[in-house]
Amino acid sequence: MTNPPPSHPDVEIVETTTVAARHLRIDTFRFRHRLFSGEWSAERSYDVLRRGQAVAIVLYDPDRDAVVLVEQFRLPPLLAGSSPWQLEAAAGLIDTDERPEAVAIRETREETGLALIGEPVRIQRYLSSSGNSDESVVLFCGRVDSAAAGGVHGLPEEHEDIRVVVKTLGEIEALLDAGAIESGHTLIGLHWLLRHRERLRGFWAVEQAPHPSPLPASGEREGPLAHQGCATRQAHARVRREGREGEGRQPIGI
Q1: What's the whole-model pTM score?
Q2: DSSP 135
Q3: Is the residue at 197 inside a domain?
Q4: 20 and 111, same domain (yes or no)
Q5: pLDDT tens across 204-238, in order?
Q6: What is the tens place of the pLDDT at every residue in 32-76?
Q7: Do 123 and 174 share a structural domain?
Q8: What's the total number of domains in the chain?
Q9: Plot region of 123 (φ>0 → left; ψ -120 to 50 → alpha; else → beta)
Q10: Which domain holds residue 111?
Q11: Lower Cβ count inside 10 Å, N or C end of the chain?
């Protein structure tokens, strides 16, 4: 979904015209922006692909040290000189008023047939092509049981024909070293997983550790932390604190 451009003191939007609105929407903007000198630029005309917000999720099975990816046909990579059969993390667009976490859960089910174990772990939000598109992608990592992963999935009404592929983490490293994975959101998510694998496994191990499960107090809403002991709450606080790498940055989420 796309929204009107937000206001900013360093840009003046003079006019916006939609020039295409089929599968993809393209808007032409007439605008001026502030220069590093403090002056204002001349008026410019620029085409922007209005893709909107999306979600991608790397699916990891810590018990088998395996990653669940999807493979599907993509025409644009062929035009770029690559194979049209691309290995990717499950992904999808955010519809109106949807939470990114809910989209991650939905896309996991639709594209792989799997259910997440617990809540998805937020990695970060990034801009996929800031020079020509407004698309932003929220990246997650989610825990799954890869034992039942396989088959072909997707929504027929969206012309989806998606094959599930399971790779060990060692195989993932080899694919990355060989440059065999070209999808941007997939590369970022997998490199994040390789960097944070041990912390992630430790976090999930703490979540599963046996602990007392007191009933919530009267009138208290029972949430994900209601049945977690002190050690789990401390783990949440510690990894969130460690994940903050600068003001305005998203925590890694674990």
Answers
A1: 0.78
A2: -
A3: no
A4: no
A5: 986 665 544 343 333 333 333 333 344 444 444 44
A6: 999 999 999 999 999 999 999 999 999 999 999 999 999 999 999
A7: yes
A8: 2
A9: alpha
A10: 53-188
A11: N
Q: Are residues 32 and 44 located together in one domain of the fold?
A: yes
Rounded to 10 deg, the angle between the 230-243 and 184-208 helix axes is 150
Specify whether the CB–CB gap between 237 and 243 falls below 8 A: no
pLDDT in tens, 88-108: 999 999 987 899 999 999 999
Dihedral (Cα; 143, 147, 152, 153), 10-degree rounding: -40
Would residue 83 count as lying in a domain? yes
Pair 42, 58 in one domain: no
Residues annotated as part of the active site: 158
DSSP-derived secondary structure letter, 251: P
In Å, what is the CA distance from 134 to each residue of 50, 53, 79? 6, 8, 22
What CATH number does the domain containing 84 carry?
Answer: 3.90.79.10
Tokens at residue 246, please?
A: 């600068």
Q: How confident is the model at residue 2 (pLDDT cuts 50, 70, 90)?
A: low
The answer to whether residue 204 sits within a structural domain is no
Q: Please check whether residue 40 is in contact with residue 34, taking contact to mean a CB–CB distance below 8 angstroms.
A: yes
In terms of DSSP bridges, do strands 44-49 and 53-61 run parallel, antiparallel, or are they unpaired? unpaired
